[in-house]
Amino acid sequence: MRILVCIKQVPGTTNVQIDPERGTLKREGVEAIINPFDEYAIEEAVRLKEKVGGKVTVITMGPPQAESALREAISRGCDDAILIGDRAFAGADTWATAYAISTAIKTISDFGVIFCGKQATDGDTAQVGPSVAEMLNIAHVAYVRKIEEVTEKFIKVQRMMEDGYDLIETPVPCLLTVVKEINTPRIPSLKGKMAAKKAVIKQLNAQAINADTSKTGLAGSPTQVKKVFAPEQRTGGQMFEGEPCQIAAELVKKLSSDGLI
Questions:
Q1: How far is CA 111 from CA 99, 152, 159, 173, in A?
Q2: Residue range 162-184, pLDDT digits in tens
Q3: Rounded to an integer, what distance in angstroms lies between the CA atom of residue 1 and that of residue 3?
Q4: What backbone phi and psi angles, to 5 degrees, belong to 130?
Q5: Which three-class secondary structure state does DSSP give residue 142?
Q6: How far lies 100's CA from each of 84, 124, 206, 244, in Å?
Q7: CATH T-level assignment (fold) for domain 2-215
Q8: Where do the domains of the chain lie?
Q9: pLDDT tens track for 193-238
């Protein structure tokens, strides 16, 4: 079975800066890591390969430096990698991102299961995975916490819910977004690191995947950020001291003078 896993490289710091003109994240010069939720997707893809056989291909869309995330995925057990990169993809929202990724996946005709993390920590929308499935016209299940059974024709999974789980059987090919409860990601082995260092990363630009550039990047994004601002810094609160009755009276007086009651 050909197994795909889609990952994203995200800022590895809380000191995130926004480009005021484009309304997008500044990624240049910022430490980048594999999206933490995608680590579980990588691990589950490798475990599925170990169980049923096949090959795991890891895919990401991003600038040239995203290659480091692909090599780390190979060190964790993936077999090969594809970097979807082109200036035409820059500034893409979730829809334009899903379009580019799904268009690239269409060049791979024999895939069975696609894994994604449930969401990315830099956007938290949880939209790209399901959108890719819709654009590929395949079934998808979100918030998968366990794979119970898999064959060449179907896969049975547990979908995590607030009060338990749903047991879902879906045909293959399909796309699964996984939660952190599904596994514990492995640490890259020395053999894996050596394989990652030697690996040749396949590069795909807009022309290679036959993408319509009017649907990619910032220009092709239906949603765009119009304004970005930092919230006002909150000042310290006011403390009241004394007996409970005295504190209550002072609090009511304060709230009344501020027009809150």
A1: 18, 11, 22, 7
A2: 999 999 999 999 999 999 999 99
A3: 6
A4: -60, -35
A5: strand
A6: 8, 19, 8, 62
A7: Rossmann fold (3.40.50)
A8: 2-215
A9: 999 999 999 999 999 999 999 999 998 999 877 777 667 777 777 8
